[in-house]
Amino acid sequence: MRPLPWWAVLSATAAPVLLIGGWTVAAIRQPAEFDSVRDTISALAAYGANDRWIMTTGLAGLGVCHVVTALGMRPAALPGRMMLAIGGLATIAVAAFPQPEVGSSPAHVRAATVGFVALAGWPALAWRRGGPVPFGLSFPVATAAAVALLGLTCWFATELYGDGDLVGLSERMTAGAQALWPLVVVISGRRTTAVRGQ
Length: 198
Prior knowledge:
The chain is an all-alpha fold. The chain has one domain (6-187). It contains seven helices and no strands. The protein has helices at 6-28, 42-45, 53-72, 78-96, 106-126, 139-161, 167-197. The chain starts with 5 loop residues before the first helix and ends with a helix.
């Protein structure tokens, strides 16, 4: 099994920091009526949001981190790595095509849809068999992760298109889990290669 480079660990660690840190700081800068449980992450980067550059930078950085992590996640199967990279590129597109002050941007919605689906589904394509396999890349764990991430994505979609009161919460839980899972895989990959090298 090929070892994971240090820069993949760095990018996987930075991803949730950029996302969660971005939405936390950006939400503080919004008017009092902004509600993180009800309002989307995209609203923080939309035209008209206060200091929209904070969440825009967080989203763009998150996307770059996913692409870099995919490049360095050598123990994972290539289709899974490609799907993770697609999710990262879609996240960069989400930052590049912000929502307008009123209404919606079709380019933003398409990019977000591709991003959420790719970042939910990549573990199902990344698992490995045989030899010492990292915890996060074993078939049962990777499959369970994909099911959980897809379940969260479906919850978010149901809230978003059903005009639910938990749109912001469901999106944050979904995006947060999707940002954290590559870190779990990378850490388990580093531990597996370290044990194998002893």
